[in-house]
Amino acid sequence: MSNLIGLDKKHFIHPTSSIQQQQEKGAKVIMDKGDGIYLTDKDKNVYIDAMSSLWNVNIGHGRKELAKAAAKQMEKMAYSSAFSTFSHEPAIKLAEKIAQMTPDGLNAVFFTSGGSESNDSAIKLVRHYWKIQGKPERRNIISLRRGYHGVAAASTSATGIPEFWDMAGHMVSGSIHAKSPYGIGTEQAIDSLRQVIDEKGAETIAAFLAEPIQGSGGVLIPPADYFKKVREVCEAYDILFIADEVITGFGRTGKMFGMENWGVIPDMMTFAKGVTSGYMPLGGVVISDHIHNVLKEKSKGTLFHGFTYSGHPTAAAVALKNIEILEKEGLVENSREMGEKLLEGFHFIKKELDIIGDVRTTGLIGAVELVQNPETNERFPAELQVASKVIEALHERGVICRPVTYENTDIICFAPPLIINETQVHTIIEKLHDAVRSVQQQLGDKH
Predict the structure, then answer these.
(1) Backbone dihedral region for residue 190 (phi beyond 0: left; psi -120 to 50: alpha; all else: beta)
(2) Given strand 411-414, what is the order of strands in its sheet?
(3) Which of 39, 130, 252, 278 is deepest in the core (most CB within 10 A)?
(4) What's the pLDDT band for 170 if we cut at 50, 70, 90?
């Protein structure tokens, strides 16, 4: 282990991590194997993976069916390019399957290697869509504050979390941010959207981009009428609507795709994560028939956009098997049912403890907010790092979760694998209760 820690510090630059922390303390954990909802580290400590790692291991760890699907495809043909109209069966069948699963009118798929690439691709495609129709001035992308869309150039700029801009600044011009409905409601959020459109001019707006639920922003679930109102605004101004389903797709919200919870059909849908449950890197953009028809009619010559691994045959074969398991095992329905149990547990903890504010779930994506005063929603001073303390307490109790502290919030996020059962949900609730109670006592509460 000490050798691995030393090598990690010397050679491995970790994504979204503190380099100083790594150099001072080494890797927090070195994982060794996964089974179901559990991960085991090199010291044989077992953890509940209550985040599906990065919101993505939907069918759970250690599924041999996916390993067999990958091996079978690798033995036959591990990789073949999809450039210059070359094609292969796994990508064709996966595109067909995704078209069957997505809402009506979304039938053509551009494949990528992950979520950041998917959102970058969607932004380039909508700009191309307007350009070939003689409207190159339509380049601006409206997204939401607290939204997260990835770390590639355009997706970083579309992300509405300033911490992600601080590293290297805005990489791409034309990204503007309207207010999220979180904490202000539909009316004010729609007013903000209209204001942004009026300020920039509708004739300069290419698309509106949003997650059905803002995951990395803190599992921010919109009011029931928000996206219907957004859709009305987009149609009124002839603005395309892109749904970022990277986290919410493939059963996470108790529906196959998150936007189905609000009965809204976007013009484009980006996906990644749950399409392979993390077993292979894969993502994509699904576009509407209308957009596809415009591309077919007016996009002359080569579409100069693509990745080496667009439509990777082994990744596509794994995705097909992953989707088969999602459907065969009823995991979308299980997500809905277990999400309700998780929410019941959150409400129980809220009644029992004194520092729990809002609790929420939609399917198996949920959050618990920690506040100084639940009645007024008064937040803790940032320097107390309450969410980080609870995360550490959960880690000590064998649960891996994620904190969100943007804008002085203390939010604990949950997104366990969709295979989780009721007993396992109860275990998470018990450990969360114990962890929050211990931090509450550290803060000086004697209840």
Answers:
(1) alpha
(2) 356-361, 366-370, 411-414, 402-404
(3) 252
(4) confident
Please give the sequence-ordered ranges of beta strands (E in DSSP) within 3-77, or none if there are none.
31-35, 38-41, 46-49
In the chain, pLDDT over 70 holds for what percent of residues?
99
Q: What's the chain's Rg over C-alpha atoms?
A: 22
Q: What does the pLDDT look like over 7-61, one tens digit per residue?
A: 999 999 999 999 999 999 999 999 999 999 999 999 999 999 999 999 999 999 9
What the block records as the tokens of 324 is 């088969």
CATH for 64-328 is 3.40.640.10
Domains 36-59+330-442 and 64-328 share a fold: no
- 């618990």: which residue's tokens? 368
Crossing angle between the packed helical segments 313-328 and 331-352, to the nearest 10 degrees: 70
Measured CA to CA, the distance from residue 406 to residue 408 in angstroms comes to 5
Topology given in CATH for the domain delimited by 36-59+330-442: Aspartate Aminotransferase, domain 1 (3.90.1150)
Q: Alpha carbon 394 to chain centroid distance?
A: 22
256-275: pLDDT as tens digits: 999 999 999 999 999 999 99
- pLDDT tops 70 at residue 355: yes
| Alpha-carbon torsion (300, 301, 305, 308), positive or negative | positive
Domain regions of the chain by residue span: 36-59+330-442, 64-328
Nearest CA-CA partner of 410 in 383, 370, 361: 370
| pTM exceeding the 0.90 threshold for the entire prediction | yes
Please report, for residues 50, 244, 266, the alpha-carbon distance to residue 107 in angstroms, rounded to integers and kept in the order given. Answer: 33, 16, 12
Give the sheet arrangement for strand 31-35, strand by strand. Answer: 31-35, 38-41, 46-49, 399-400
pLDDT at position 101 over 70: yes
